[in-house]
Fold this protein.
Amino acid sequence: MKNLLKVTLVIALAAGLTACKKNVKDDANADMTMAGTTTEMVLQETTVTEEEVETVQASLGVVHFALDKYNLSAEARKIVEANAKAIKAQTAGAPYTVVVEGNCDSRGTIAYNIALGEKRANEVKAYYVRLGIPAANISTVSYGKEKPICYENTQSCWAKNRRADTILTIN
């Protein structure tokens, strides 16, 4: 996740540094009226470095888990398989990274949920590796109960928060 933040900051910095600039031939003549003035167009050649290449980021299918579980259900496996196909199709030889984010519902201690979120993320990562996604391209992070998508104290809401999100970044 730190690398993703660094890449995003580098891209934002590069975009800011390469912003359009105004070319004024003579500031003293800038106040002249439009009558009788000419406009000069200046073309500037720029080169794009690897750090300035736009990064494309996509969220893929979300895998949900049962209460206090990190094993993949048959439905979860289908989602991971579809994600793996999408990753292979979208990257087509381009450099990429995959981040699997493990999440839990709001019940339980912070330490317990961080550990459970990590197990969920690692389980999804292991299945991606079995499906042919290189382990070197996949990182995991556990947010425990810190990134809920639903805030109600109901069974259906808690079920939505017990998940693993997959984020694909194509460089």
Remarks:
- The chain is about 35% helix and 15% strand.
- Residues 100 and 166 are 5 Å apart (CA to CA).
- The first strand starts at residue 56 and ends at 59.
